[in-house]
Design brief:
The structure holds two protein chains of two kinds. Chain A is built from four helices and nine strands. In chain A, strands 5, 6, 7, 8 and 9 form a five-stranded antiparallel beta sheet that branches. In chain A, strands 2-3-1-4 form a four-stranded antiparallel beta sheet, with helices on one face. The two termini of chain A are about 35 Å apart. Chain B folds into three domains: about 180 residues, Thiamin diphosphate (ThDP)-binding fold, Pyr/PP domains (Rossmann fold, 3-Layer(aba) Sandwich); about 190 residues, TPP-binding domain (Rossmann fold, 3-Layer(aba) Sandwich), CATH 3.40.50.1220; about 170 residues, Rossmann fold. In chain B, the strands form four sheets. Chain B has a six-stranded parallel beta sheet with strand order 3-2-4-5-7-6, with helices on both faces. A six-stranded parallel beta sheet of chain B has the order 11-10-9-12-13-14, with helices on both faces. The termini of chain B are far apart. The chains are: A alpha+beta, B alpha/beta. The interface between A and B is medium-sized, with 23 and 18 residues. Bound molecules: thiamine diphosphate and magnesium ion (MG). The site of thiamine diphosphate has 19 residues of chain B, from helix 17, helix 19 and helix 21.
Chain lengths: ~170, ~600
């Protein structure tokens, strides 16, 4: 899902500021599908200015050159600004919610795992636990894999959001 | 001033300077048809909404202004989908207004409801669903702005019936800032550093070609192009969308490249060491197999659409900007490097003399390149063969038509063999005299586009060169033309076949002809023309061609249709087989013997 072994990362993050208008998501999704660009994940959220929303799109750069994806996106009239974030230049976060089937004797193991990852137990049933983790996507992947050993009943991931890493000089 | 949404729409179109629109009413757009009665705008009632869309395209292509079409919801709107897609592919500015069911009914599968903004999202530059009457003037102004600036294209405004009926207080957006387009900023001026690098490549080129596309026409850059070509002494090819952007009679003109381009234009690009692409998009019909296209060429790519740069071919220098502004900046950069205007270069292939002591004075000579180009032209001119007493050749019809028409005649084509013969055998001398469907290849384009072109340029003779198959798709609009007294002329190259498909079946499917025969006289085109209020003429032999054309040219009070019965078996040459390399261009069989492989 994230980087392909030791090579170049397969994904790239685009942070896209769009007008908060009906149909904008369809325009973006339609563009990706008709041009054959692949999306790994897409997150939509309002911004502090109600006229705009922000899409965080993780694109598969093997499906099309990044430059082409950006230029085509930029042509959409409702797209106001695009910033490209190379994975190494970004802080990325993703949230995972998982319900795990776990009986009383093994409950402690799962809670311990959640503790190690600094996640949270958000709901407890008789033979189930719902846990949460917000972290960088690779860590979330690891967490998901380890939870898998216990039997995941339901899983939701948000797709990633990202912001540029801050430099060491003062911002102006 | 209080207006209804419908009145505001018409007033907005008037304020925008619209003089004509093409359309057909229906339930959802009814409110808007009422104020048309008192409007200064001429409304042309079509017989099918596809006709309205293509008329608006023809109008736009000859005038450079946005064409306007108006349709009702549901089927009215879906009937205009083909013209929208066509205009999108050919970057033609179009504003389509569609009626929509009332906002309260949207999403309920109401009568004649269709999500036309959803349907046309991928084939418009942008579209709008207007939900408040007070948004109408701003939306109309924004629609025209988006359609006509940057890379032009079609837009659609979907107008629900209750919005048309609602009241609003009239205003007109004063400035561009009032259009509410925070994400729309076309880049028109090229980057000076890139222009300087382009000038360097131009001064170093030994085997250059100016690869001219439709963007040059749209930018009104033909004068700048002429100066660039003459000053540099570079040969020019004009793509299917750019015929007329550079005069065919000019010694620097090599004609059309591409799948059915001439040998010299195609091969010059293949052997070039520099391609200067101006408002062209490296379409597959031009490049053939991309990996084998112009392998030795460095590329300068000028386009107003940043997404075109590097989409197909990575250029050495990419310049985003309006073709006219960029070419003019390039001319300044060349001047600074010692290559200024030189009267001695006008209508020659020699190019300007460089100012002594400058880089331009020592640029490579291109004599060898020109000698090569002239040798190709001599060996592989466009060619067809006629036998005495044999069938009428379609190329003969086009040549005769050209010979008997003034050079400012507007020629409009359908899609197929006849289109290619028109583009090859017509000699284009002026911009905006060629109207055709390039990117989409829409059969049925010619008749309505010719009507729109004639409405846009009533001072010009407009000849449609159409196929028998194409004609049958949209001929009903000749009834529109008769009713509205729009005297277009249509030459049907009636080969009784879906000829282009027949040609592919002959060449690539072992002559297994599948569903391509149409018959020469079903329908009877002369009677059909007469039934629609046109004059119908038939010409069956070479001798009948010129008299038929002269008769048609003498009629200026109604449309004319000439049914030219042409050779059913004639093929278009040269031809680069689809997906093949341009090096594998197939010339006319009589030229194939002893073809020199370069
Ligand atoms: C709407 C549409 N349908 C099908 C085609 C495929 N097509 C391309 S050329 C052609 C034949 C056109 O026949 P005609 O108008 O008689 O022209 P000709 O090639 O015979 O000159 C066809 C069917 C098309 N381009 N457009
Ligand atoms: Mg035909």
């Amino acid at each position: 899902m994230s980087s392909a072994g030791d090579g170049e990362p397969r994904h790239h993050i685009l942070s896209v500021l769009v007008e908060n208008k009906a149909g904008v998501l369809a325009r973006v999704a339609g563009l990706f599908s008709r041009r054959g660009f692949n999306i790994f994940s897409l997150a939509v959220a309002p911004t502090d200015d109600e006229r705009f929303s922000r899409l965080t799109i993780v694109v598969d750069v093997e499906s099309a050159p990044l430059e082409q994806v950006v230029q085509q996106l930029d042509k959409l009239v409702n797209v106001v600004a695009i910033s490209q974030l190379a994975p190494e230049a970004a802080v990325e976060r993703e949230l995972l919610l998982a319900t795990v089937a776990v009986d009383a004797p093994r409950r402690g193991e799962v809670i311990e795992l959640v503790g190690v990852f600094r996640g949270e137990v958000v709901n407890v049933g008789l033979d189930r636990l719902t846990v949460m983790l917000a972290d960088d996507p690779d860590t979330v992947d690891d967490f998901e894999r380890l939870l898998g050993a216990y039997g995941i009943v339901e899983l939701q991931r948000t797709g990633r959001v990202a912001l540029p890493k801050l430099g060491r000089s003062k911002a102006d | 001033m209080k207006l209804t949404g419908a009145q505001a729409l018409i007033k907005s179109l008037e304020t925008q300077g619209v003089d004509v629109m093409f359309g057909l009413p229906g339930g959802a757009i009814l409110p808007v048809y009422d104020p048309i009665l008192g409007s200064s705008i001429r409304h042309i009632l079509v017989r099918h909404e596809q006709g309205a869309g293509h008329m608006a395209e023809g109008y736009a292509m000859v005038t450079g202004r946005a064409g306007v079409a108006m349709v009702t919801s549901g089927p009215g709107a879906t009937n205009v989908v083909t013209p929208l897609s066509n205009a999108y592919m050919d970057s033609t500015p179009l504003v389509v207004i569609s009626g929509q069911v009332a906002t309260s009914a949207i999403g309920s599968d109401a009568f004649q409801e269709c999500d036309i903004t959803g349907v046309t999202m991928g084939i418009t530059k942008h579209n709008w669903l207007v939900t408040r009457a007070e948004d109408i003037p701003r939306t109309v102004a924004a629609a025209f702005h988006v359609a006509t600036t940057g890379r032009p294209g079609p837009v659609l405004i979907d107008l629900p019936k209750d919005v048309s009926n609602a009241e609003m207080e009239w205003y007109w957006p004063a400035t561009e800032a009032d259009l509410d387009l925070p994400g729309y900023h076309p880049r028109l001026d090229g980057d000076p550093a890139a222009i300087a690098r382009a000038a360097q490549l131009i001064l170093a080129a030994e085997r250059p070609v100016l690869y001219v596309g439709g963007g040059v026409l749209k930018a009104g850059a033909t004068d700048a192009l002429l100066e660039l070509a003459e000053r540099t002494g570079f040969p020019v090819v004009t793509t299917l969308m750019a015929r007329g952007a550079f005069p065919d009679s000019h010694p620097l003109c090599l004609g059309m490249p591409g799948m059915h381009g001439n040998y010299t234009a195609v091969t010059a690009m293949q052997r070039a060491d520099l391609l200067v692409a101006l408002g062209a998009r490296f379409d597959d019909r031009v490049t053939g197999k991309v990996s084998a296209f112009a392998p030795a060429a460095k590329v300068i790519h000028v386009d107003v659409d940043p997404a075109e740069i590097g989409k197909v071919r990575a250029p050495e220098v990419g310049i985003v900007g309006d073709c006219r502004r960029v070419i003019e900046a390039l001319l300044e950069a060349l001047e600074a490097a010692g290559l200024g205007h030189d009267d001695a270069a006008v209508r020659t292939e020699r190019g300007a003399r460089g100012r002594p002591g400058t880089q331009a004075a020592s640029r490579p000579a291109r004599d060898g390149w020109w000698a090569q180009l002239r040798a190709w032209q001599a060996a592989y001119p466009l060619h067809y063969e006629e036998e005495a007493g044999g069938p009428l050749k379609p190329q003969r019809v086009v040549e005769t038509l050209r010979a008997l028409s003034s050079p400012d005649t507007v020629v409009v084509a359908g899609v197929g063999q006849h289109q290619m013969w028109a583009s090859q055998y017509w000699r284009f001398e002026q911009p905006r005299t060629w109207v055709n469907s390039g990117g989409a290849g829409t059969m049925g384009f010619a008749v309505p586009a010719a009507i729109g072109a004639k409405v846009g340029r009533p001072d010009r003779t407009v000849w449609a060169i159409d196929g028998d198959g194409c004609f049958q798709m949209t001929a009903q609009e000749l009834a529109t033309a008769s009713a509205e007294r729009i005297p277009v002329k249509v030459a049907i190259l009636n080969n009784a076949y879906l000829g282009m498909v027949r040609q592919w079946q002959e060449m690539f499917y072992a002559e297994r002809y599948s569903e391509v025969y149409l018959s020469p006289d079903l329908p009877d085109y002369v009677k059909w023309a007469e039934a629609m209020g046109c004059v119908g003429i038939r010409a069956e032999t070479p001798e009948e061609v010129a008299p038929a054309i002269e008769k048609a040219n003498a009629i200026d009070d109604r449309p004319v249709v000439v049914d030219f019965r042409t050779d059913a078996f004639e093929k278009v040459f040269p031809m680069v087989p689809a997906g093949g390399s341009n090096d594998d261009i197939v010339v006319h069989p009589s030229q194939a013997q002893g073809r020199v492989v370069q």
